Every structure is written in structure tokens, then in C-alpha cells.
TrEMBL record, chain A:
GO molecular function, one term: dolichyl-phosphate-mannose-protein mannosyltransferase activity
Protein name as annotated: Dolichyl-phosphate-mannose--protein mannosyltransferase
Family annotation (SMART domains): MIR
Subcellular location: Endoplasmic reticulum membrane
Cellular component aspect of the GO annotation: endoplasmic reticulum membrane
Species assigned in the record: Phascolomyces articulosus
UniProtKB/TrEMBL annotation, chain B:
Segments forming domain MIR: 330-384, 398-457, 467-524
GO cellular component: endoplasmic reticulum membrane
GO MF terms, alphabetically ordered: dolichyl-phosphate-mannose-protein mannosyltransferase activity
Keyword terms, alphabetized: Endoplasmic reticulum, Glycoprotein, Glycosyltransferase, Membrane, Repeat, Transferase, Transmembrane, Transmembrane helix
Topological relation to the membrane, as annotated: Multi-pass membrane protein
Comp. bias regions, Basic and acidic residues: 420-446
Stored PANTHER family: DOLICHYL-PHOSPHATE-MANNOSE--PROTEIN MANNOSYLTRANSFERASE (PTHR10050), DOLICHYL-PHOSPHATE-MANNOSE--PROTEIN MANNOSYLTRANSFERASE 1-RELATED (PTHR10050:SF50)
Protein name (database record): Dolichyl-phosphate-mannose--protein mannosyltransferase
Family recorded in the similarity comment: Belongs to the glycosyltransferase 39 family.
Disordered: region residues: 418-446
Keyword ATP-binding: no
Entry's transmembrane regions: 45-63, 136-155, 186-205, 221-254, 275-296, 599-620, 632-651, 663-683
Coiled-coil segments on the chain, per record: none
Amino acid sequence: MTSSDPKLRRRRVDPMDAGSSSLTDIGEEKKKGSWRGVPSGPSPIGHRTALAIVTLLGCITTFYKIWHPAEVVFDEVHFGKFAGFYLKRTYFFDVHPPLAKMMLAAAGYLLGYDGHFDFGTIGDNYIENNVPYVGLRMLPATMNVLCIVLIYNIMRESGYTVLTCSLSAAMYLLDNSAVAQNRLIMLDSMLVFYMLSTVYCYIRFRKLRYQEFTRGWWFWLIATGVTMAMTVSVKMVGLFVVTTIGICVLVDLWGLLDIKRGLTMKEFMRHFNARALALIIIPTCVYLFWFYVHFAILDQSGPGDTFMSSAFQETLKNSAIKMKSLDIHYGDEIILHHPGTEVYLHSHTLKYPLRYDDGRISSQGQQVTGVKEADDNCYWRVKATKDISKDKRTPVRHNDIIQLEHVATGTNLLTHDVASPLLATNEEVTTMEQGKRYNETLFKVVLDDHNNGNIWSTHMKSVKLMHVDTKVAIWTRDKVLPEWGLGQQDVNGNKNTQDRSNFWMATEIKGLNATEINMNKKKEIKKMSFIMKFFELQGRMLRHNSGLTKPHPYQSTPITWPFLIRGISYWSKNDTREQIYMTGNVFGWWLSIGGVAVYAGVMLADTLARRRGVEPIDEPLRNRFISSAGLFLILWLTHYIPFFAMGRSLFLHHYLPAATCNYLLLGAVFQFMFIDGIDSPVSPLEGTTNTKYRRFHPLMMVATLSKYSYLAAFLILLGQLGMFLFLSPLTYGTPGMTVQQVLQHKILSTWDLQFAK
Amino acid sequence: MRQRRFAWSRSPSRSNRLDPLYLDDKIWKAEQQQKRRLSTNIKSFIKSEPAIVLYLTLWSFYIRLWKIWQPGSVVFDEVHFGGFASKYINTGFFMDVHPPLAKMLIALVAKLAGFDGAFDFKEIGLDYEDANVPYVAIRTFCAVLGALTIPMAYLTMKKTGHSTMSGLLVALMICYENGLITNNRLILLDPILLFFTSATTLTWVNFCDKDKNYKPFNLQWYFWLAMTGLNMGLTASCKWVGLFTIATIGLPTIKRLWDIWGNTDISKLKFMHHFFARSLCLIVLPIAVYMAMFVIHFHSLPNTGEGDSFMSPEFQQSLAGSNSHMSDTPLDIAYGSRVWVRHEGTRGGYLHSHPHEYLTGSGQQQITLYPHKDDNNWWIIEKPRNARRRRPDGPGGIEYVRDGDRIRLVHALSSKRLRSHDEQPPLANDEYHKEVSAHNDEDSRNDRESDWIVDIVAHNENDVDSKYRLRAIHSRFRLRHSTQRCALFSHEKKLPEDWGFGQQEVTCMQNSKLPKTIWYIEANQHSRLGKDVEMVNYNHPNFLAKFLELNKIMWDVNKGLTASHPYDSRPQAWPFLQRGISFWGKDGRHIYLLGNPAVFWSSTFAVVGYILVAFLTVLMEKRGIFDLYNESAARFFITGWCAHYFPFYLMSRQLFLHHYMPALYYAVLLFGSMFDLITIWLTSRKKMMLVIMASYCVIYAYRNFIPITYGEPWSQISCENAKWTRTWDFDCVQ
């Protein structure tokens, strides 16, 4: 700071001139009139007018021809259908949490829709099927307009000028991807809405940091927690905004902990506890609440049954599994099915060959294999190894030691320390005549779900057969035996006993008709505690989500998203040559990614310079650039970077929340580049409850707009508007285009528009 | 007029901020003094430093080399790394996921020991003695390198200012680490990797010692810096895990540069000197070393071998005696040309058909990709009957095939046409894949399903013609189906062995992305072209091209190693030693890679302890209590541990316990550092007692697992008793 260039510092008023001695006393400051409360800068009227204008414009871009197309578009297939399930109260399974789908269902309920339509494929007609789709679309579209309002207010509360606020909001309302995505029956506009609300609430909370523990402070803190939970309740992507808030709170707490801040440990713990309550406990309750509602509504058996455990399925009305299930008793002849590879445990009179192709040697025992179709060779009799009463049928329980007899050949299942035919590390499974090598034919019944009743039953309790002698589990995998094994599937003893694929399911008991028996025996609907249901569903959602790896023709990798290398074809109609192709506003997206680069460059240069004792940026400007624009940057990063670590198939629309955050950052960078100064401070010190804060000195500055500011904003908006209008046929799906026009609209050669030939 | 009200106050903390470097130095000096006082007594016991190093080295040789000839058969990954040695000796090109240095060293030792490369190390348990393999020499080489890490660990501890006692403890812990013993005395890459990793650490701490007092740029300074760079390069040339070692050095380097940049007493010019000296030695030099290893690698393997099929045709062209060696082929392609069509996206080879039918879909004759030269690869380009005629535009009245032309491909031996139709292909079961087959419909005139449109998508920059008409090798094209909006496609899925001969599937894919739909013509004959036509062949790739290609393929193959192995494990299991790896078993004897639990668990404890102490220190500083604990050496060791451990969480390939070994090395060093911290108040005598007790525990645990470490006989009872946790699954069956 000693060697700084005078030119760099010209904008800074000398502290002595400004009366630094009097800065210690805020009261005096105020008297002098050199310090004003919030909001500084332009009058609220300017803001109100600008907000009204962008909201109006947002309504126009969002609601324009919202009834077109009157057909199912892209993921409306899923979310329209899910709303229908709520209205029919049948249980379904989806990887997303329930809130947004319930909102859609509520909209449908109010519109009198009964959920009769199945939203089968893209292109199904709504009008013919009598679906109030315009009403359903109104909900997400309204949310989109509210997003615009929120963006404006986030920028306003962060202390930016009317011009900057309007710019950010206008960039968003003219973004093709936001318009295309958020007016359809999908979850994204709800997600973005709650995400932005969280940011807004947190900023309001932050601004009250000198009025700690006042009513307003508590209100905005709890509001942050609630909106955060709402975001997560829409999609798990909401966890990214939780991460952002988490980072901010940690930084904030770290600052509070600083001894120079003057808080005692007791005061600090009070801060800590308040945040823990509002940002951990309350959000958890809100999140759980929506699941409670979810289970309360969906009380009937439906298409989601098969995704859940049998215990869960029993809690639903009319559950099919209850009709099929039977308890297994000693002496029963059962069929064992491997769910992972869809085969049945099988044996036949053929033997393993003495010597395999690779020179290893087998036991020459009878083959045990897996087959795709169950036949008579698939029946296995469960035999007890302990004394059981002869007159009464004894059920097989968890941890019982049993023998399995292959009914057709009268031999017992056995495994031993001989390498299996295809996998030398695993044990060979074979069968043995009665009475021989008894100890090696013993298996322990390990039930997957033995906490809810420990009796082994068909279709309900999957089972792991643990070999007592050598501690391996009977296992099969997607590999078939060569010719000598008739191309049937390899079965062996797996040393990795913890693997999920070790579980088998008994599917049939010979001679017993499950449906008949169950018809006579009336089973009642079982209860399951909410928290158990929740954890089961949550676990399966996460597992299913990471299992969505099936490639899709329109999937893309995260690195291509900000540059819009490829869009997604949402809908097309051959007769009219109309199509909806989801793509962002190329101008806005490239500009905003440029904004990120500018931000990173400025911060890097500033950090390096400061390290050498040069301070090129005025303190209030820098402060705002770090705390406000920095928040937007973290928002963008947390909504973008985690996708790189995800294994599931990803799509361009996953970038939409990040693109929205990027417009916030673009506004902040615009202010830094084209507007001289910043309105500071934004957080009022008046009414502070803590006397220690009186020592703090606000950094004061006023933003000055020049004609260049207006010119730059005008040019940016002109570019955005031009690109928006140019791409609008792809966004609204109308009008249809000729080949020539389609080719014109291929801004990048990698875009795969329909009707280009 | 611009008006601004602006107030600003000077931050009070800035003026009284002490220079951190000055402070560091003072603390360091104080610590040194204290440590020196403590160690004077001990030094009288054991004469001098070099003597200690010598004792340690000899002792670790004994521990590592004990019964090195046992077992006399192939153990675990000796299958691979012994096998590579014989491949180097046979000079046939092969492909492996690891860089070449360690393998070349093994091969060199084998060669010097008189190995002729006849033994192929095909599977675990093959006998060495019958085959006359000098395996003892090779294992001795590996074990010696492994043993040398022990004196280096001791020296590292001493150089970073730790007490002799903690240095000795660290050395003994590494010496008696069963996992390292098992892993280091076999023909594996890990001992060599570990040797260079610890050498890098040692040279780096020496450099830091020279750099500490801002007296840079003298000869010694440069020597240690360059040695660090050299060792880094060698480490990375053994295994890519060496990149983690580079990160371990890189992070403190950046930190140091940041400090220098922040020191306004050092001019910018001098900073640039610091910056470029480090860039040169720590970036340029390692890269040069790494590339040099590949120069030697390519030089040692000039001949064709089993690795050919991984490589591009250009690369194969550079190998001698290659059966896929291409002779020059005419450049121009016209209607009536007999051609070999090769797939660019995969290494599957040539478009192929043979007189066997699909067992699925249409049941027509199969189309596959076949990697070898074969007469069934010949296709003849024909014009559809109803296509528009053009005037012959080539010499001898031939007509060139142009971009956008509709063509038919006729399989030369069976005279059947390549076609696609709305049927499900055998393997790809998405609706956007269509079956491709060879078939002859009687009504060939209207058989639009065998018409394909040539789209040239890339061409040789030096041959402008190849953009507009098809030319051998220079033109890369797609074959678009005329009716189905799909393009001829192939991917790395093999048809079933019994009816598809394990050849690669070919389909026609709609909305396909570029890479896997690109084809080109490799060989070409035309009856009406004379001998004097323009010929073409693959470009001969230069070293850089070969180097980059091989590294890319190594990366891809490495990423593809996702098959599960019965003894693989995930990183979270390693620090707690949850499970080992069965290496070998014969006649009731077993070798099972299991670390010394005392070393594993105590080093993990040290890591957790360090993190707690460091966190507490930062927290206390925030509350105004300074300088609780600040040990730069411990910080370096924890950096090393993190850099060698956490990246494994990002890897989805199969991982094993032995991947933890470099991280373990750093964890043990950190343990030494923590040992010094907690014993700082003890007298040297008490400290020595503590070291002896700790060593006793380590040696006790070591002796417990001698049988599975060296493959010694073991009684079933003591074996069962040695299973301290239920997850250790070594075999006790006699």
C-alpha cells in the first residue's frame, strides 16, 4: 500500500478529507448527511417502474401461444403422467422428490382433471383426450414470470442500479431455454423459482447482519431455510443451492468467530445454534413433510409397486404381491429366481467336463446352471437339518440351516473348494447323492429383509444361500457356459458375500396356487412407520437416479453446455414442419460465460496485485465484487461443477439453473465494467442491536451512470432480443420452417434440428 | 461533474503484522535447538549418522531378501510384469496401461541375468525352476529397490529436522511392514515406483532445506531442484500414480512461489528467476524424462506383436514385420473398384461378410468388422441401376465416386449386397439401431434398401480432390442409408462366439454422432487402372504422434479396467486394512498381501490426529491464540498422503490394496512427525523406551504374519488365530 500508483488511487477520497475522525461515530455521520440508509441511490419509484415493465414483458414472452402445441412435449410424458397418478391416488415411483409434481396435481385438481390420460408418447393430442393442458402449463409459466421478478429483486437488494437490475431480468426473460422449458409441464420452473427465492431470502438475511436476533433477522433466516427445503423437495438438484448457502454460512460464521469481531464464545454459539435450527432442522422437517403428504395421497397399489420392498408394498391397498406370496415350509418344492440376470436355478444330469479348455480340472460333478425358462429341472426341495414335528408344517426361518434337494435327480446341492468352470476364484457348485459329504451340502438361509418377519416366503423375501462350510454364497452372473453346459448361465459360489447380486427370490411352490390360497385368507393392510417408508423411498430414488446411465441420443456432456454445442429436440410435427428445439439464447449464454471469465481475470489480477502491495480496485467496489458477485459465482459453480462427477446420462436442461445464476453474475460484471462505482452501503447499520458493531465503518460510494452505461446495456439487450426473436420458431414451436430456414437456424453445425433435409 | 462521497479507513492489523517468514525461521531455530539438545545423548550410543543408515540398509536387505527364491513359481501380477520382460526380450510390440520405465528395468535385469524370453508367465503357479527362469535375480533387484526406501525414509525424517529416535521408528515401521515386504520382493512395478517416490521426497526435502533461507540459485540449490525433477519424471514413468507424487511436490511449490511473490523485498525479476527455475526443473525436465522413456520403449520394440490391434493403422505401419503392413494402393476410387473399407471410430478393422447368417432379426448373411486381412473383406463399388449416369471422368473410361453419390457395395466373394432394413440388430437393442446384412434380392432394380449415400466428412488437407471425390485413405466418409435416415455404424460390442465368431457388430444408426460412423478405404483395386496411377499409403508417424497416441490408448484402456476382481477393494477400506489380496497358494502355503496392522492402524491414527491438531490450531488462531502447532514437514507429509489417497476415490476402475502403498509411506512419515510432537516433553531416555516399545509391537505383528508374507508353512490353528478381524479372508485350508 505504500508503493501504489497515484493514478490508481485517484478515485479514492482521502480518508482525512472525509473526516475519518468522525467516522467512528455513526450518529455524527448521519447528521452530516454524508451517510444514508438503505436504499441509497435511485428512488424506489425508478425500481418499481422498471420491475413492472420487465414483469409485463416476461408475461408476454412466457405466455405467448401457451396453448401451442396441443400435444405432449418431451418430458411432459413423465410429469403429466405423475400428476395423473396423484389424482388417481395410485402409487408410482420417480427419482424426483414430490413437491413440484404435487403442485401440478393440485393445479389439475382445481381444473377438474381426473388423471384419465396416460401421456403415453410425445406427440399425443391433448384436445382429443380432453386434458386441461393449458391450465396445467399455466402453473410453471406463472412460476417463470415470478422468477423474473425474483431476479430483479435479488439484484436490487444487492444494491445494483436500476439499469443493472433491468438488464439481468431482461436477459433472463429473453432467454430461449428458460421460455421453452418453463412453460411446459415440467419441474424446472418450480426448481428455479425456489432456488431464486432461497437466494433472495438469504440476501435479505445477510443485509440484516447488524440487527442480529431481531424479528426481521429471524424471519429471513427461517425463510431461507424453508425455501431451501422447497427447492430440494422439487428436485435433488436443490442440494446445490443448499451447498451454496452452506458455503456462505460457513464463511459468515468463520468471520464471526474471528477474535477481532469481538464476539464472545457464548454469543458465537447463539449465532451458530440459530443457523443450525433454521438451516438444518427446519428444512429437514419441511422436506419430510412433503413426503408425508406424498404417502398420504398415494395409498393405492399402482405402477410404482415393483420398485419398492415387499414390506412397503404390503402397506398399499390392492397390492398384487400380497396375492402371490406364500410362506415356505420344510418339504416344499420351490423354484429359485435370480432377479438381476432373470434366470432360474437349474440342474440336470450332465456333468462338468473333467478338463476345461484352459487345462484346469473339475470335480466332474453334476452341473448346476441358470436357465431363462423354468422347467421341471428347476424344482428344489427344502429339507430341514434339525428335528421338525412331523404332523405340523414348519416354516423356514431366517438363519435356518437347510439342504436343497434337486427333485428331478434326487441329489443335494453342494459347493466345495474347487474352482468354478469360468471363474477360477469362485467355487464350483454341483450336486451330490443323498447321504454323501453331508457337511458340504448345508446352506444357511439369509433373508434380505428379516426385520419384518423372519419367515421365508415366495415373492416377498429374497434370500441369500450361504454355504456353511466355506462361507460362499450361491451366485450367478451374465456369463454363459460353453457347449458342454448347453449355453446355460454360469452358477458359482461367490466369495464376495456382501454383493447385492447374491440374492435369489423363490417364485413358486409346487402344487400350491397362491392366488387361491390368498383369496380365502384375508390379509389386512400392514402398517409401516413413515420414517421407514421415507428412508426406503429416498434410498431407492438415489440408487435409481445413479442407475440412469442408459444412453439417450440427445444426452450431452457438461463441458458442452455453456457453449450450447447441442440442443434437445423436444417435439416436432411432420405436417406443419414445426418443432421445439431446446436451446439457450446463444448470444446471452456466450456473453455470460464471458462474464465468468472477466470475473475470474479481474479477481486473479487483483489478488496478485494486492500480494505485491498494489490495490487497483477501490475498497467498496472490491467488497461488492467479492461478496455479491462472488455469491453469484458460487451459485453458478455449485449448479454446474457437480454434474462433471455424475455418472448418469445428462442433458442440456440440467444447465438451466446454472444459466440463470450466470445472468445474475453477468449483471454484477456489467455494473463493474460499465457503471462507475457502486451504491454502498446496502446493509444498514442503524438500529443495530449489538453495540460492538458501532465500531464498523461503512464503505461509502454512489454509482454514477454515464451514457456509455446506457449504450452498453442497449447493445447487450439488442443482441439478446435479436437472437431471441431469431430462435423463437424453435422455442415456441411455431411457425413451421422450410429446409432453407431450418439450415439458417443451425447456428452451430452440431445442432441437430429436425427437417434439415 | 462527478461527485463521490467516499470514506475509507486504514486497517489496523496491517501495520503490526509480522513477517511470517521471519517468524517461521525463529520457531524453526528454536525447535532445532531443542531437538539437538535431545539427540546429543543418543548419539553417544550409536556412533554416527552414516553408520545408522548403513545398519538400516543392511537390516532391511535381510528382511526383504529372506528366502527370496520362495515361492519358485509365478505369483499374482508377475503374470503381467514378468510377461512384459519376456516381451521386451522378444522385441514384439505390446500394449500395457503403465508407462515403460519399471518394465524396462525389469527386462534389463532379466536380460543381464541371462533370461532368453522363452517363458511366458502365463498364469499364477507356473514353475520357474523347471523353465530355467532367473527369477531370483529379478526379484532381488525389485527387493533391493524396495529396501532402499528404508534408509531414504530415515534420511527424510532427519533432513526435515526430526529426532533420530522418530527417524528410526519410521524406518523400522516401513521395514517391518508386511504388505510392503510382500509387494516389494516380487516382480512387480510397485517396488520401483515406491523407490522413486521416496527418492523424490528425499531430494525435495533437501531442496527445501537449501531454499529455506532465501539463498537460492547456487549450485547445490540447482542440484537438488533438478534431482527432484528427475526423480519426479522417473516416478511418473513407472506408473501414472507418479502423477500424485508430482502433485505432492507441485502444491508446496505453488505455496512457496506465492510466498515469494508476497515478499515485497524480492524484486519481480528475482521472482521470475525463481519461477522459471522451478518451471524448468519441475515441469520441463520431468516431461522430458517421461518422453525419453518412450523413446527407449519404441526403440526396444521395433517389431510387430500382440499389441498391434490396439493401435491405429498408421502406428502399425511403423512396426517391422507387421502382418497388417500395407503396401501402396492406388489413390483414385471409381465405380467397379474392389475396396477394403475400414472403420475409423474403433479398432475393429474392415467391413466384412462371410457365408453365415444372423440367428436374429432377418436371418440374412452377417456383416461384421474383422480386424485381419482377409478375402472376405473385399467389396465392389457399384452404381445403382436407376442412378443418374454421368460421363466417365477418369482415365480409361472409368467414373469416379463423388461426394453425395448413391452407391451399392457388393461383397466380392458372395456377390451379395450390403443393405439395411427395419429389423432389430443382434446386440444393440435401441430402436434407433437397424440391422445391416448382406442379401441378394431377385428384384435388384428397386432394391432401395441396398443404396447408400457417400458423405465425405473429412479429407486430407494436401489433397483437395479428396474432398469432392472418394480417394483411398485421404477421404473419410459416412455411408448414409437411402431410406432409413441412418448411417453405417459399428461399436465395440462383439457378436456371440458361437455364431458370430466374436466379431464386432455393425448396425445402421439413426441420429448417430460422428466418430463411430466414419469409414475410409484402405486398399483399392480397379481392373481398368494401369500400373502408373498415383499411389498412396499411410503417413509414417513421427515420435510425438506415436507417443501421444500410445498415451491416449493407455488412458482409455486404463479407464476401461472396470471388471470386478474377487480381491479388489475401494479406497475407504485401505487405511483400516479391511481386506488383503490373495497372491498365491500352492500345497497348503499361501501368500496373501496384508499390511502390518500395527503400522496401518497407527499411521491412520496419526493422520486423524494431525487433522484434529491442525484444525484446532486454525480455530485457536481465529480466537487469538497463536502458534499452537506449525510444523512444515508434517504439512508436507499430509499433503503427500492426501495427494496419493484421495484421487483414487474419483477412479471407477478396479482398485487394490497395493494402490495405498505410496500413501502409506507418507502416513508413516507423518506418524514420525506426530511422534516427535507428543514426545517433545520427554527426556531422551524415556523417548527411547517408547520407541523400543513401539518397535516391539510392530515386530510382534510382523512375526505373526510371516507365513503369508513369505509363503511359509503355517498350522491351521495359528492361521485361524491370526485372523484378527473377520474381514481378512486368507486361506487356512491345508
